[in-house]
Design goal:
- With 190 residues, this protein is an alpha/beta fold.
- It has a single domain, classed as 3-Layer(aba) Sandwich (Rossmann fold).
- The chain is built from 7 helices and 9 strands, in the order βαβββαββαβαβααβα.
- A hairpin with a 2-residue loop joins strand 5 and strand 6.
- Helix 1 packs across helix 7 and helix 5 runs antiparallel to helix 6.
């Protein structure tokens, strides 16, 4: 079996992580690739479950070692990346890999894996709804929310480059559409 890659991306607060979690609960041979980041955990996030939380220095060392399939400096001294070892770990178990990454990371992985990768963009109903979701999370400062909204405006421009766009204005419908797209992709043998 060739390992396939499913890549979800969206502006922060669009609901991609919730959709990804619900898809993973459906019990298919798809496993979440845990990203590495150089920030501290937020809320109830757990090292090795939500992210591999490493220092900025450790992250830079892994960049030098070519340990990432993709990585990005999102903000000053704030790095996110996908470790090559995660694809190997998941593929060795006979599972397909699910990524939850930013737009640039999604395009980078797609470029490397071509038809073995499906890119899914989760679209918020509007920037206003997105901002409200970020505020409701109560995990970010005002400055952080402003940065995330500015970044979201740029990320939304990339949506047409994705294989699938899912509008998340109704979570159940968004999950159902995402599930159908992912399931069809994984079961297509071409």
């Amino acid at each position: 079996m060739k390992t396939k890659i499913v890549i979800f991306s969206a502006p922060s607060g669009a609901g991609k992580t919730t959709i990804v979690q619900k898809i993973l609960q459906k019990g298919i041979n798809l496993e979440f690739s845990i990203s590495a980041c150089s920030r501290l955990p937020r809320g109830l996030e757990v090292h090795g479950v939500d992210y591999y939380f490493i220092t900025t220095e450790e992250f830079r060392k892994k960049i030098e070692e070519n340990a990432f399939i993709e990585w990005e400096q999102v903000y000053e001294n704030s790095f996110y990346g996908s470790l090559k070892s995660e694809i190997e770990r998941i593929g060795a178990k006979g599972n397909h890999v699910l990524f939850d990454v930013d737009v640039k990371g999604a395009m980078s992985i797609k470029k490397q894996y071509g038809n073995l990768a499906l890119t899914v963009f989760v679209m918020p109903p509007s920037l206003e709804v997105l901002e409200q979701r970020l505020r409701n999370r109560a995990t970010d400062s005002e400055a952080s929310i402003s940065k995330r909204i500015a970044k979201a405006k740029e990320e939304l421009k990339a949506a047409p480059d994705f294989d699938v766009i899912i509008l998340n204005d109704n979570l159940d419908q968004a999950v159902e559409k995402a599930w159908n797209e992912v399931n069809n992709f994984l079961n297509n043998n071409s």
